[in-house]
Amino acid sequence: MAGKIYTVSQLNKYLRQQFDDDIILQNIMLKGEISNFKVHSSGHCYFTLKDNLASIKCVAFRFNAMKFRFAPQNGMKVIASGYISIYEKDGLYQLYVQNLAPEGIGELALAFEQLKNKLNDEGLFDSKYKKQLPFYPRRIGVVTSRTGAVIKDICHVAKRRNPLVKILLYSVLVQGENASKEIVQGIEFFNKKCPVDVIIIGRGGGSLEDLWAFNEENVIRAIFASKIPIISAVGHETDYTLSDLVSDVRAATPSQAAELAVVEKDALVNYIESLKRDCRYKAYNLFSIKENKFNLLWKHSIFSDKERLLQSRQQELDFLNERLNKVVTDKYVNKFHQMEVIAEKLKVLNPLNVLQRGFSIVKQDDKYIK
Questions:
Q1: C-alpha dihedral sign at 82, 83, 86, 92
Q2: pLDDT by residue (tens digit) across 272-291?
Q3: Coil, strand or helix at 28
Q4: Is there a contact between 81 and 98 (Cβ–Cβ < 8 Å)?
Q5: Of 39-48, 69-78, 236-245, 289-298, where does the model show the most confidence?
Q6: For 105, which DSSP code?
Q7: Which residues form the Exonuclease VII large subunit C-terminal domain (predicted)?
């Protein structure tokens, strides 16, 4: 006697239920090599995880893929965790990836290197984009936690070096999920709403994970886009973040950041005194040069023998006057002679003068002879 007949969809649904009921398959970790990696326009990631003998299809939905701190690539060895189930439409089982980590290297370390290389290729770390710190800042903006030691160290050093400098704090989270967003908001606040002469961003030391907010791409791009010079003071001297690479100046500690930003009052006073001495020295030299030049001019013959100079000029004036009179006279005589010549010509050609000399009218055969 034949058994019950099932439809394909019923079978796939049954198998899916079996997968879903299996405790091992609902929380499994697989290691392998990524191949055929593809990101759909929806943001979902599809790829194959394989080893030397077998392979399995994998999918990471958008909300899980967004949590990956590195960019998966073909050939990369990874550890994928998630659950296995049946895709009923095709009858294929696949791994639904909820988390992905590189094998043999820390996830954050790999993400750090990938982002570092990407931003370096774009030129964000190029020294030609670094801005000079102002010599005498009056207002310094600090982007850090209100409760941390960073702001206390900066204020202590700044006030000691120059009590006239004003410190403005934009309090932010310095680690955690929303830290990078708040840091970006702090940088934009000082650039757009509360102008300062220089910005210090920083926090105390910690692990790579603790400092990760200062490695986020949105923070790096906000630092690069800032019109105000930025000093990065993240962690201790041995700590290094991408914020240090993109900032205009990197300080090993927050205290050093304050020293770099604030010129010491005594040093400033000494600098002003040196400028005053330099100005006096240059003014004295300039005055001496002008005085010597004046003395040389005063000894010139134009001042030592004024009468002789005037006599010489008077004689020259008389000569020019005579020359001018001669030129005018010669010009007049020449024009007068030309006028007489022209008058004689007119007189000769005058028909009345011809008649005065006499004339006759001759006829022949009662006709005038012309």
A1: positive
A2: 778 888 888 888 888 888 88
A3: strand
A4: yes
A5: 39-48
A6: S
A7: 124-340
Two tokens, residue 346? 């007119």
Per the CB < 8 A criterion, the answer to whether 220 and 243 are in contact is yes
Q: What is the CA radius of gyration of the chain?
A: 50
Closest of 241, 197, 117 to residue 250, by C-alpha: 241
- The arithmetic mean of pLDDT across residues 122-147, rounded, is 91
Q: Residue 101, Cβ neighbours under 10 Å: how many?
A: 18
Q: In angstroms, rounded to a whole number, what is the distance separating the alpha carbons of residues 49 and 101? A: 13
Percent of the chain with pLDDT over 90: 31
- pLDDT, residue 2, reads 55
Angle (CA) 225 228 229, round 5°: 95
| Residue 137 contacts residue 154 (beta carbons within 8 Å) | no
> Per the confidence metrics, is the pTM higher than 0.70?
no
7 vs 231: CA distance, rounded Å:
68
**CA 186-190-193 angle, 5° bins:** 110
- In terms of residues, how long is the chain? 370
Strand partners, 364: 367
Of all helices (H) and strands (E), which one includes residue 167?
strand 166-171
> Residue 1: pLDDT band by 50, 70, 90 thresholds?
very low
pLDDT tens digits along 315-339: 788 888 888 888 888 888 888 888 8
Number of H helices, E strands in the chain: 12, 12
| Closest by Cα among 179, 178, 168 to 141 | 168
The C-alpha atoms of residue 48 and residue 66 are separated, in whole angstroms, by 19
Share of the chain above pLDDT 70, in %: 93
Q: And the tokens for 192?
A: 């757009």
